[in-house]
Amino acid sequence: MVDPSLDGAVEGRTATLARLGSALVRWETLLLLVVVALIWIGTSASPVFLTTRNFSNLVVAVIEVAIMSLPMALIVIVGEIDLSVESMAGLSVALVGFLFDAGMPLPLAIVVCLLVGAAGGLFNGLLVTRAGLPSLVVTLGTLALYRGMALIVLGPRGISGFPSAFTGFGFGTIPGTPIPWPFLIYLALAIVLGFMLHATFIGRQLFAMGKNVGTAEFSGIRVARLKIALFVLAGVTSAAAGVVLAARFASARANAGEGMTLTVVTIVLLGGVSIFGGKGTIAGVALAALVLALMGNVLRLTNVAAEIQSIAVGSLLIVSVLIPNAARWLGTAVRSSGSGPPARAGPD
């Protein structure tokens, strides 16, 4: 007869090992290890890497794309995508410059930009949900549409002369800290969206939509309304990122934000959000933004050419799709090997 206490001890150790193995192959854990490795490489490569000034530069270099990546993550989780975020940011930059140059008070101009962002997101959402068009096609079209509107609003000219309080918000830091002011926007948005996604019924509905939209509709989830709300959120957030971009560069041009969509999508997918929907975390997206910021900073400090930096971002996009699938397979293998045969109930 097998001692039941011995069986229980073996099963307990096996279960513990399985849980440990699953934790080790969590995508967020892998990203954290990459962050540690990049910090070590940066410290070895440059004596200025760990300075407070470099920390500020590291954050502001990606703050706009980091802000836009948070609502993008929710959109991808429900099985859609928004490629127009960079153009909405550019339109916001053009609008805030044009309205300020026309004599409108800057706070009111910012409110107008946010309202235009909401309208652009609503337009995207209605075309996707009411007209039944693929979000890839819709937002590819509005990517060009909103950029064209920015060119019409501002043309080839640039606007500068913004108030010092506005530009100081863009590249200044919180007194006594190396933390840039725009980081507060990102932090607040990450906390709110993270809580909503992982601790509320709305988040459960979003995951359900991404896993099976038909089942979600059948269970009573208002799929169309939620998708529209997410596109509106992406539009407003992109407009806010555009305002931050104008403040950081202390100028407004119609071509601002070009190429940001690739970086935003890279952050989202590198953060572990499944391109097929139904899976992802805000923590993973935040870590991915940090990875991208650290990598770009290290490459700049070591004087790597801009073309090589672009290649690195493109490579990350490919890796962010390939490796999560391998990690999920490894996690499944670990859990399967750790389960073991069922315990025997008694003697032969």
Key attributes of the depicted protein:
ABC transporter involved in vitamin B12 uptake, BtuC; 0% strand; disordered C terminus; 348 residues; 75% helix; mainly alpha; single chain
Overall 3D shape: globular
- How many helical stretches? 15
Helix content: over 70%
CATH hierarchy, class: Mainly Alpha
Describe the main β-sheet briefly: none
The low-pLDDT segments are 20-24, 342-348
- Kindly identify the CATH topology: ABC transporter involved in vitamin B12 uptake, BtuC
Structure notes:
It is a single chain. By secondary structure, the chain is mostly helical. The protein contains 15 helices and no strands. It has helices at 4-24, 27-45, 52-60, 63-77, 85-101, 106-129, 135-154, 164-171, 182-199, 201-211, 213-218, 223-249, 260-270, 282-301, 306-339. The chain is globular.
